[in-house]
Amino acid sequence: MLLLFGGLFFLLFGRMLQIQITGQIDGRALAAMADQKYLRESVLKANRGQIVDRSGEVIATDTLSYRLIAVLSQDASKGSKKPQHVTDFEHTAEVLSKYIDMDKEAILKRFTGAKEGAYQVEFGKAGRSISNETADAIKKEDLPGIRFFEDKKRLYPNGNFASYLVGFAMPEEDEDKNVKTVGKMGLEKTYNKQLTGTDGKADFKTDRWGIQLRDSKKNIEAPKDGQTIQLTLDKTIENFTEDALNRAEEKYHPEKMLAVVVNPKTGEILSMSQRPSFHPGTREGLTGNWLNEAVEETFEPGSTMKMFTLAAAIEENKWDPNAYYKSGHYEIYDQTIRDVNKVGWGMITFLEGFQRSSNVSMAYLLEKLGDQTLIEYFEEFGFGKKVGIDLPNEASGILLANYPSERLTTSYGQGSTVTPIQMVQAATAIANNGKMMTPYVIDQIIDPNTDKVVEKHEPAEKKSPISEKTAKHVREILESVITSEHGTGKKFALDGYDAGGKTGTAQIPKTSGGGYIAGDGNYLYSFLGMAPIDDPQLLTYVLVQKPKLKAGQYGSDPTSEIFTSIMESSLKYLNIAPDAVQPDESLKLKDYTGESSEKVTASLTEAGLKPIVVGEPGEVAEQSPSVNTKLTKGSLVLLKTSGATTLPDFTGWSKKQVLVFKSFSGLDIRLNGEGFVVKQSLSSGASVSDNDPIVITLEEPEQHNQTKPESEEEPEIIGG
């Protein structure tokens, strides 16, 4: 026995000595095994990139939320006075069902259906994206084993806001049970790779209960947030658009609506929305249609197409506004083209025919121009091919031009199909003095980890089929569509601004069997317009399909209400001088950079303007508005200098003016609301530092929609 136990002792001693010398057991390093047991890795979640408007205002961002788990293993309660695992399945399920979107039976099934030996269970979609308020409420129930982990939730603070453009992202679980936010639609999907960040991690040693050891070092690999997508959208103009569409939807209940606002000088999309719409955060209102219809859908445009036929005729010197033709009908082979009222208006001039939106006038104009020539112009305007906008799945439309009858109907917008973005692009050539601009919606992509611009989009001019002279001539005629007693666009007149544009009433093709849908109101009503007409700053396209019209209402009612509301509010917001002001009462701004702010201030004050120096008296470094902008008396001019900034009285300032002041001053200005300033947290004259927050409260101006007297109403007409 002595020899046996002695042998065992020396054998054990030898084994211990071997392990101590080699540091290994069964070929595995003991230190590594210890590290594996006590080393913990904590994931540091990266933020998904933000989507912001042109001024940096948030459209989509990540916010803190919580993920709910239930600990089932009794091991979690070892060494603890209070139970750390779920002890009462029934009670826990009943309480949780009050707070999460899961009934009691489904929660119980999670508990009882867990794999044998499972440490914890989760609750799928119902247990993710839990708000701080809900998490706090559940914690107060003091349920054993119920724990929360910090998570990320995609937040869309503006609700229904360019929803089909922005799209949405939602949590998705991969094969390894890791949950990541993934873009499912719109920009969130298209730029998912750029928006997705890279998670970091923190390695540290813990005791058996998971508590970090005092002397252990934490090795941190910082997360890299996703890139920021800055759009050309203007949040205020987008809100004007959303509000106008909401009012029209409530009043007319159309099948579809769409509105696009663009800066014709650059091609920047300032707003883009459609109805029906949905809330990106909840997906409430989302239908089976996931198309951004401004880019991905095609339709017959109707009479808005006539402005491009007119432009081609003027460019080819085939337009004689005072020449007469016989309205009513036009024969081509075995086909009869009729005017909208079937009988016409007798012998009228081509100018009156355009104002009345006569289809027959287009037929006679085409005889002079040549139908093949017209198709060539339409191709140069960009119809029948993609414009190349920085959005996915763009449709190209179809130019029907195989037969003379097809070329004729195309001249007034029937048969051939287009996209709204093609119409907008073509119209920039008219609004921008013969320079056709490619529409775009991405301003730049920024890496927030380095603040470097990764990708920058600039205005891109395309070869235009018309000259500056032609563009100005077309605008004069488009203005007469609104101002003439015969014009179909009288309802589209703006308060304080001269506008021009073309109405359209297109038939809607049947989904099967050929032909068009018949019946009152079963049309696609549209308007493509611009203002101020002498030098258009905004171009807006509105479509309303199959509105529910009451007796005395016409298709031009919803389209005009949307157009006038968006344009009047947006032009005022952009500080565009009204056309009603006489030329000698307006002032064109010079380039004041490099000049003395005191001299410039005196000069501008004498001219009736309101100069604001952002900084101390000295040399002007920047100015807003820019050089050559026309301003009326009483308009604000911001002059950036250097040095400390004194707060002005912001009352009555537009949001854009406040944002320019914020940019010039670098102050911590926080905006609350939309429209114009009504209140500020710090009084004027106060001297503030970069660290002092200043809260500015804005309110939207009342919308004034002109109501036309009944005597001015005209029946809606096909092609009008």
TrEMBL record:
Keywords from UniProt, A to Z, are: Membrane
For this protein, the parts annotated as crossing the membrane are none
Give the UniProt subcellular location, in the record's own words. Membrane
Composition-biased stretches, type Basic and acidic residues, lie in: 701-710
Which intervals carry biased composition (Acidic residues)? 711-720
Q: What region holds the PASTA domain? A: 640-700
Main location (coarse class): membrane
InterPro entries in the record, alphabetically?
Answer: Beta-lactam/transpept, Beta-lactam/transpept-like, PASTA_dom, PBP_dimer, PBP_dimer_sf, PCN-bd_Tpept
> Is the Membrane keyword given for this protein?
yes
Residue span of region Disordered: 697-720
Gene3D superfamilies listed in its UniProt record: 2.20.70.70, 3.30.70.2110, DD-peptidase/beta-lactamase superfamily (3.40.710.10), Penicillin-binding protein 2a (Domain 2) (3.90.1310.10)
State the similarity comment. Answer: Belongs to the transpeptidase family.
Protein name per its UniProtKB record: Penicillin-binding transpeptidase domain-containing protein
